[in-house]
Amino acid sequence: MELDELKAIWQNNEAHFERTLQLNAELIEERRLRESGRHLRRLTAGITLEAVFNLVAVLAIASFAADHVREPRFFVPALLLAAYAIAIFAANVRQIVDLRSIDFAEPVVGVARRLETLRLRRIRTTLATLLFAPLMWAPLAIVAARGFFGIDLYAVADPRWLTANGLFGLAVIPAAIFVARRFGQRLRESSLGRALADEIAGRSLAAARDDLAAIGRFAEDG
Amino acid sequence: MSATDAHRDFVERLDRHRGILQKVSSAYCRDAASREDLRQEIVVQLWRSYRRFDERGRFSTWMYRIALNTAISCARGRNRQDARVALAEPAILESMPAPTGEPQDERIERIYKLVNGLDELNRALMLLYLDDYSHAEIAAILGISSSNVATKIGRIKERIRRDVVAGLAR
Prior knowledge:
The structure holds two protein chains of two kinds.
Chain A: H1 3-12, H2 14-19, E1 21-23, H3 30-35, H4 39-67, H5 72-100, H6 108-149, H7 153-156, H8 159-183, H9 191-201, H10 203-220
Chain B: H1 3-16, H2 18-28, H3 32-49, H4 59-77, H5 80-87, E1 93-95, H6 106-116, H7 120-130, H8 135-142, H9 146-169
């Protein structure tokens, strides 16, 4: 059977496509349509929540840093934490702008490319957040102990403890990558665990890059 | 045009072209719950964009573009939880059984099988081709060149020929 024959069959069945779907006119009220639409709205809401959380963190750390500007032992860890939170916040803002600029009335390939680019950026942000998080543990402990409880961790903890924490943070990064690559694919029971492992191992990033390249090939072919 | 008139106008046009919703949802979703979910998502996107619809263009062409963009976006982001949520909500568009005495055309099922075997973008191209859009119109909806459309349709034709030959050889 040729494609042209399939096309003729398809067109002869136009009435069938319409008969098998009924519009519930009373459910298409204007208000209901305004309030519906889960897919991108949920994604936007999730990123916005992340951005708000990170902004609050940036403001709190900046306030702490301002109070301890003459005490480098508190100021430097606060600066590290602030840089980390600002970087994530900036990535969140960029994603929200990207998402809001997507117009579904634009050509299909362009929209697909923008959505895939957004996915790629989200994966990179998550990956960076997860991998740098262990490095932030020691500065966070110093700042949080001082900020919330007024405790000077340098005075109460052994300097070797702080050094060990810093080194542990460094060691966790390659260890996490190794575990995710080696055992991640076995996490069939937990979709969240699997997704996390795929992101740390770089599999999600590779898949997103492949998908973006496939869109590029589709657009440039011929 | 008042908001009420615009809404009535929208519903009338949507009803006239509801076949597009059926075709796109069937091409991008395998189960009934996901199809219903996708159709509702498309209707919401259509209404959101309706204010910007250019009356000089064809409604069906504009509708196809938004429906395909929504379908591809949902297909990439869909997870099982979405399908479960859909079941709890009333359906804007309900699937109807085929009228009595009208057997489900097996050839349509075969076409869907063929369409479902393609990647998301080629699936969009195939739906538009089957609905008799010209190469130029398909190119405008997808955002690629007309020669690219012709090349891809040629490849799909070739693939069908190969499948038929392979089927005969079996």
